[in-house]
Amino acid sequence: MIEILQTRTTGKGLHEITREVQAAVRAAGVDDGLCTIMIQHTSASLTIQENADPSARNDLEEWLDRHVPEDDPHFTHTAEGPDDMPSHIKAALTSTTLSIPVVGGRLALGTWQGIYVWEHRSRGSRRRCVVHVGG
Amino acid sequence: MIEILQTRTTGKGLHEITREVQAAVRAAGVDDGLCTIMIQHTSASLTIQENADPSARNDLEEWLDRHVPEDDPHFTHTAEGPDDMPSHIKAALTSTTLSIPVVGGRLALGTWQGIYVWEHRSRGSRRRCVVHVGG
Amino acid sequence: MIEILQTRTTGKGLHEITREVQAAVRAAGVDDGLCTIMIQHTSASLTIQENADPSARNDLEEWLDRHVPEDDPHFTHTAEGPDDMPSHIKAALTSTTLSIPVVGGRLALGTWQGIYVWEHRSRGSRRRCVVHVGG
Hints:
homotrimer; 135 residues; alpha+beta; five-stranded antiparallel sheet; three-stranded antiparallel sheet; elongated
């Protein structure tokens, strides 16, 4: 089963989609299987991260933002704004696709794991993920 | 087929699990298919790396440790110790899920590739991976 | 269905394989399903990146090359040349496996996404990817 999952981000950082992905798994009616998510963008990415303390996600976002700064004078691909090239680099360093086993109709995530769209553009955007659930 | 793979790490670095994953593939009885591994933690991760010379794995671990140091004064998520926030960042920069084709009942790894749990906590921990093998 | 995809790179940087992967999907005759690619090397990797403006790929390659330089005096794994250890690190920071949903017989990539072998060795090499296409 294939489902398109659309989400609206409002700026840089982690935007949780665990519930939406779990709903797609439920709709697929698969008991034991595999759920794969791909984000159809190169200036946003996916990650599985701690879902408990927001300070961990903030520190993570800020670390990446400090290490891939917008004002790098080496960049030549700057026509779409100063946050564009850092977005592609951040996407390359994180994940575009994730595959999560399904056990008993549920994503087999660890207790503290959540699935996130990681927005790298300053203004956010409408983001599309393709979710595949198989047996 | 789903199998839970438990492993005990003793400190930061790469801990090989190729043999255990191959055993899960064999148990599944799948000839040609796909094996997916997900680690159920956000302070450890997965990687496929060179299995020949241990110096490559040591240099890799030390590079990551120098580039995501524990004493970063920007971190606010510090309640679980100085190695906790670097662990989440290292996990985000490496892999939480891996999918490896199976050919003739064996993981289709390259000659020099091994599958590793990458422990990011100083003391190590008991780590759980979920392995899915499908046709 | 499993297919081996061989490609020849000529130096560091992104080498597009979208067409070859799409051909493997077509040959598999799968309508809705999942395509998984694994590169059988630890000194090259995979990425999904922007396929429009080459300047984005150049900036990406140069950013990674500046941040994982060859002359790092900490490296001990140097027998295979100065570009060997950086190659392993770059591979660990990017992707060894990718899973892309297939919709209507086509890879469900976004408009601006292409699939690339990311060569990290200076001279390039013959590179093998294993492609699995399932229902």
